[in-house]
Amino acid sequence: MTKKQDIEEQAARWAVGLMSGDNRTHADVDLAAWRDEDPRHARAYEDLQAMADDLDAVGEEALQEEFERELHEAAAERKRQRWVAGISSLAAGFVVAAVMTVSMWVSAPEPVTYQTAKGQRSTIALADGSVLQLNTDTRVTALLEDDERHVSIEKGEAFFSVKRDESRPFIVNAGETQVRVLGTKFNVRLGASSNVVSVLSGLVSVAQRSDDEDDVREIARLHAGEQAEHHTSSQEAVVEGFDQGSVMAWRNGKALYHETPLRDVVKDLNRYFDAPLEIADAHLANLPVSGTFNLTDQDVVVDALESAFSIVAVKRLDGVILLYARQEN
């Protein structure tokens, strides 16, 4: 070993010892005295520190490349073998820290968005074992964290079958409505002026929320068979029983109505089809409609309205289907 290699190896040993926080191997040598006894000592140590600083400054990918390059140089240049070995020890520590950082970043949960087009339905199995069913023209975003599970309904309607986990509450945000459960089955429909939460099983907390995430006020607590219509303008909820067959019929591709005004039927059916229905005769708006309609075929739905409720449907050139009262002869 040359004198220069010996000095470089000593400098590397000093740097490795200081970076590891353990100098017991060199307790009998004072670093300052070692640097002062020969200008080459100080220069070698300063060069080593500069290289370490460069390694620390680069990003994780550049750091890995620098480390590999130094290893190749070590194989090609025998005279620098000892020095590079010392630097490699330092770089290895940086790489381990970088890998740990990247691993933590990769493992962080990311929100996932699911959506359906008009007339479509979709079933989503979440990683926690919960299942979502999306109705027509619906978009939701799910984020499953270690301490909480979140789903945001941006538009439409969804049915939730939540796997019970008392350590991870399941929270659904639908506009200004927040639903909080541990494990249950319920339906949430996001509307223009009100949101409807219908519970099939379990206990559900319904709350009023605002832009401030900490400003959440419970407005209803629902049991199986109960439904809350949350009016966002009044910030209150109306709780009542509900017809499970009607509310949940969409899950089987059906729409079920019982003495429902035609205006509400039309509004509901228009969620499923591209060609909108429109009431042309105003006095038809309150016409009570009862029956089950197949949501997979709009022509069948229109035929059923015409035959059962004395309605005539006329399709305009722009695709809108106008509903008129049939004129009796």
From TrEMBL:
UniProt cross-references to Gene3D superfamilies, sorted A to Z? 2.60.120.1440, 3.55.50.30
FecR protein domain: from which residue to which, for each copy? 113-204
Per UniProt, residues of the FecR N-terminal domain are: 9-50
Q: Which UniProt keyword terms apply here?
A: Membrane, Transmembrane, Transmembrane helix
**Pfam families xref list:** DUF4880, FecR
Keyword Mitochondrion listed? The answer is: no
Instruction: Quote the protein name from its UniProt record.
Output: FecR family protein
Mark the transmembrane ranges. Answer: 83-106
Q: What is the lineage of its organism?
A: Bacteria, Pseudomonadati, Pseudomonadota, Alphaproteobacteria, Kordiimonadales
